[in-house]
Amino acid sequence: MASIAQLPGFLSKQIMGESAVDLTICSTDDIGSRLCDFVKARYDEAVSARGKFHVAVSGGSLPKFLKGLSRRDDMDWSKWWIYFCDERYVAVDHPDSNYLALKQHLLSQLTDAQQSTLEKQILKINSSVPVEESAKEYERELKTRLPSLQLDLALCGMGPDGHTCSLFPGHSLLQEEALLVAPIRDSPKPPSQRITMTYPLLRKCHNVAFVVTWSKWWIYFCDERYVSLDHPDSNYLALKQHLLSQLTDAQQSTLEKQILKINSSVPVEESAKEYERELKARLPSLQLDLALCGMGPDGHTCSLFPGHSLLQEEALLVAPIRDSPKPPSQRITMTYPLLRKCHNVAFVVTGESKKEVVVSSLCPNPLTPAGRVRPDSGNLNWFLDTPAAANLGCPAIVSTFDSNVELGKRLCAFVKDRYDEAVSARGKFHVAVSGGSLPKFLKGLSRRDDMDWSKWWIYFCDERYVSLDHPDSNYLALKQHLLSQLTDAQQSTLEKQILKINSSVPVEESAKEYERELKTRLPSLQLDLALCGMGPDGHTCSLFPGHSLLQEEALLVAPIRDSPKPPSQRITMTYPLLRKCHNVAFVVTGEAKKEVVVASLSDPPSTPAGCVRPVPGKLFWFLDAPAAANLTHGVPSQ
Q1: In angstroms, rounded to a whole number, what is the distance separating the alpha carbons of residues 555 and 448?
Q2: From CA 609, how far away is CA 618, in angstroms rounded?
């Protein structure tokens, strides 16, 4: 599911990581000149540092803002190398072509000599081959021109639904981590076929700039109090004070015309009818791109209150209310039929007073008006502060994926992010891995050219008490799926930094040796990441339901001689060590585990896996669709 902070075009961690965001607000008339100054400054930096200026541009309205660059006499166009953030899969002279838009608004303003030079340095799409091959060609040529893959500047736009490039809300490409340039055949915005840069490439940029104009915004109110617009209870007045007043006069003037306000000069019933009529005229599809909703301590949202007859309203999209239990008594409100049509609905809920109704709203059969807002085919998101989320009982960040391929890509990106954090903070990356099916999901890490394997120190969450070349060995599984994919030099380096079990001594002594060496390598005992699996019985590592090791608090690495799952002898990390981790991530797949997933994420948990709760670290669960089948909106069915 997409959230406001994760919408593809938002200045979020998806693209920016921990980078600072500079926000420039100016009138639409001034955007062009301000943007051209900004581009020139980035050009100067790049040429001074690297001798060339590699820039990616988007289509839409953005190219027209670049026209002013043609009037600058301090620009050496031979230094420019131009790419497209995305391109429609059409001929370069087609009206939908982003190249054509750039040509019309920028290239056509240059001298013939400048145009001739620049044309050779623009990387255009090849629409004479299938779109998949076209994307591959584009990525290959980009790597040839720019081996560092670090664009000096990406100039991005954003659509009303939050998309940027051709990265659309809810699309599988939001999880793409292997391809830098990807094909798309099912764009929700025509034309359906395109190629697009993906997050891995955008994250590498020296600079990313979004150009967004308020002329794209059309604003409505989920509900409005039946008062004048300057009344202290007016939702419009609150929006004006907190948002509109921060804009330029020109922006305010534009946006004011596109805000649908209530008419309080007619009876409330007529006001609601007028609002619905105008909404239909402005938005015939009746599909709002986003509804931003709040929730009261009684669970109401919009002006839909517990027990009120409007909860059953199915004919009106906008309804009047004369008996609101919360003053003022007269209001107009959007109803469920309209809210269900939304592309995205996001609730923003804060405060301890709402912690009970948050739980009631997120259960499978919600008991509150807010909980009943479930878009038919759109995305539903809840933004909670810590007090409001206090009773949820599941501290995990849960991610679900339609396919194991998507899960693998996202998991590798997640591991790389934890690696970056650890190396930046501590100079090394200490990670523990499990066996089973987990190592196969790590194969994608071997294809990354931005990984220094000498920083990796690898341990095993548990290990079977067998030789390293035995088919049951977790080390052997890791070697087959990850190490074998690396270069000989990388393998040689990494082999020295993998802590392997010693199966030539009794299992008890082997566990003691493992713990001693772990303490030597990692005196803090805080692993940067533990990658855990879970069995159909809810076990993790070699911590099995009902086993005495679930109560072990003295040993960090313990022996086990009576594993209910063969082989019977093993060594395993215990809860005291797992609780110290900076991050713990579970990777769970398959329908056979759907019941224990719920049991693990419930409060209190009833499985060994569910009892792994790092303090004060972070807990993540990566689930495929079958394993997540019994979860509702990320919260276990009760």
Answers
A1: 36
A2: 15
